[in-house]
Design a protein that fits this description.
4-stranded antiparallel β-sheet; two-stranded antiparallel sheet; mainly alpha
Length: 589
């Protein structure tokens, strides 16, 4: 098993086989006899020829392909999204509307299956022409693309502006309807090939290939161009380096093990994580140009040359070594190329000239040694300077330092001295953050069911301890939780009923607790009168037994007073209190 990589310069698109089927449908839809009927349609104040309605497209798909309504609508959306049909009234909306919205067939030259890709130069010309036409009014993403292309192809931007002006002048000479249709056509093409942010890129197909994997090779005539492409493909395949997957995975494991100790997430960071402890010592020890770096940072320079040259402190130490070897101009040239590549666009030309005079010109003060081929490419590119004009010379110097100077630097006293005096920070004790939202350990929340049970138990205990009704020796004072008998029938004698918490016989308002037999009616009445004279009318417990409480079918008295509703007594506690009241009455009998 081998891992291969395809070249960016290859042309055919592997996953676009279904585009041929769409193209066949497009040819059928444009057939004068069996296709969709197009006619002159009016858009705004312009008559557009060869236009059709979205509903006509849907009906043609339903009739000729024998599919459902949903499938036909989805297929019509694909026609528009891939740029085979473009809208006239809403050019930015690449969807098929099943109403009177107008559409036109795209020119085959702009179909996605064409072998030429959408070039940056063509897109830059389109944006420049649109910028001239609208006097600088572009979409936000188009402005970003315009500025990016200006920086990327700055060396031929004059050509771009010239072409845009010529196309704009030629467009003015066309008829109004042709000009409107061409604008919609171009906009739809670039919406497909340069997708705006937030839209799906339907042409995301991966890398191109030299040979078409979907072509039908049966009965195909071999032309000179076909043989030339195949020869180029096989030459590239021979020169391509191949690595076994086992070797590749072994390299990945080795890389992970090497960088494991330097990973702050997996291995932690010393002296402490500043995001947790708010201790800035970690930032101070790892500053770009700190006087004495940490040992872990210096050891990382020995991993590879890229780690050394990316670290500002590493480059500074490496520069000391190169000066002793009288080759410090190599690193100086590399840094100057980096400044040119990522610096200000307005100073590209000026910086390129300065670099040439300082490092590349004959008799330069810090002349670098590069081969004649690279020098010729660089001097030729400096006639039209841009950001990447010195890439060939920079790569040559980079490889020279990597293969020649880097190995000697790791064995030099400069590196060993820096490694010896490097700091090894000790781990500090973590302290809690002083901020309000600092990280702290929070107890886990109990279940809502447990909370509800605790609340009910607390209510029951509160109801039971509000008034002491469990003392049976208080014969002269009646329990505050009494239900008042308001029935018309004679209540049964408590002596005839067993001592049990079962419900009493039902009546209109519920059973009464007062005995009606000849035993002790006066004592009960006197006890109740004495209890009332002691000022218990204002007791919240007496509200529950007042005659204002209405009776319900289950035999429990429900108070209607506002004070009792605020207290929210548990109904089970009230039933329990009534049971104890009955026990007290039976004891007095």
């Amino acid at each position: 098993m081998t891992v291969t990589r395809l070249d960016q310069g290859q042309r055919h698109r592997p996953r676009m086989a279904f585009l041929k089927k769409i193209e066949a449908l497009m040819m059928e839809m444009q057939n004068p006899d069996t296709g969709i009927k197009t006619e002159m349609q009016r858009v705004m104040v312009t008559n557009i020829p060869h236009a059709m309605a979205g509903n006509d497209i849907l009906q043609w798909i339903l009739q000729h392909l024998q599919v459902t309504q949903e499938e036909a609508l989805h297929l019509g959306d694909l026609f528009v999204k891939y740029g085979y049909i473009y809208p006239l009234q809403e050019p930015k909306n690449l969807t098929l509307k099943t109403d009177g919205s107008l559409y036109r067939f795209q020119t085959p030259y702009f179909w996605p299956a064409q072998k030429w890709p959408a070039d940056d130069t063509d897109y830059a010309i389109y944006l420049a022409k649109k910028n001239i036409k609208r006097k600088g009014v572009l979409e936000e993403y188009e402005k970003e693309h315009y500025n990016m292309l200006n920086q990327k192809i700055n060396y031929k931007w004059d050509f771009v502006i010239m072409q845009a002006k010529e196309q704009y002048k030629a467009g003015k000479e066309r008829k109004k309807e042709d000009r409107y249709a061409l604008d919609c056509q171009e906009r739809a093409y670039w919406l497909v090939n340069r997708t705006p942010p937030g839209m799906l890129d339907v042409l995301e197909y991966g890398l191109d290939r030299v040979t078409d994997p979907n072509e039908n090779k049966v009965n195909q005539k071999k032309t000179l161009d076909v043989y030339r492409r195949e020869i180029m493909y096989y030459q590239q395949a021979i020169m391509k380096t191949r690595v076994k997957s086992s070797v590749s995975l072994g390299g990945l494991v080795k890389y992970s093990e090497q960088f494991l100790s330097n990973d702050p997430i997996l291995s932690g960071c010393l002296p402490s994580n500043p995001w947790i402890t708010d201790d800035p010592e970690f930032w101070d020890l790892n500053a770009k140009l700190v006087e004495i770096p940490t040992r872990m940072r210096v050891e990382r320079w020995a991993f590879n040359f890229s780690e050394l040259i990316r670290d500002p402190k590493g480059r500074q130490n490496f520069q000391l070594f190169l000066k002793k070897e009288f080759s410090g101009e190599n690193l100086g040239f590399w840094e100057a190329c980096e400044d040119l590549k990522y610096g200000d666009q307005s100073k590209v030309k000026e910086k390129a000239e300065e670099i040439y005079k300082l490092f590349l010109a004959p008799g330069a003060r810090r002349w670098i040694n590069i081969d004649g081929t690279t020098m010729g490419i660089t001097v030729k590119g400096l006639k039209h300077p841009h950001r990447y004009v010195l890439d060939a010379a920079q790569t040559h110097i980079y490889m020279l330092m990597k293969k020649d100077s880097y190995g000697r630097y790791l064995k030099s006293p400069i590196y060993k001295e820096m490694l010896a005096k490097a700091v090894v920070p000790q781990q500090t004790v973590k302290k809690s953050s002083p901020f309000l939202f600092g990280r702290r350990t929070l107890p886990s929340s109990p279940s809502p069911i447990i909370l509800r049970q605790r609340e009910e138990e607390a209510k029951a205990r509160e109801a039971a301890t509000t008034v002491d009704i469990t003392q049976p020796h208080h014969r002269a004072s009646w329990s505050p939780h009494l239900a008042v008998y308001t029935g018309t029938s004679t209540p049964p004698c408590p002596a005839s009923q067993p001592h049990s918490p079962q419900a009493l016989p039902h009546s209109t308002a519920g059973p009464g607790p007062f005995p009606s037999g000849p035993g002790r009616p006066r004592a009960a009445a006197m006890s109740l009168g004495r209890w009332l004279r002691r000022g218990r009318w204002s007791s919240p417990a007496f509200t529950a037994v007042s005659p204002e409480g209405s009776a319900v079918s289950h035999g429990k008295v429900q108070p209607l007073g506002g004070r009792e509703r605020r207290l929210r007594r548990d109904s089970r506690a009230v039933s329990r209190a009534c049971f104890y009241s009955m026990n007290s009455v039976q004891a007095t009998c």
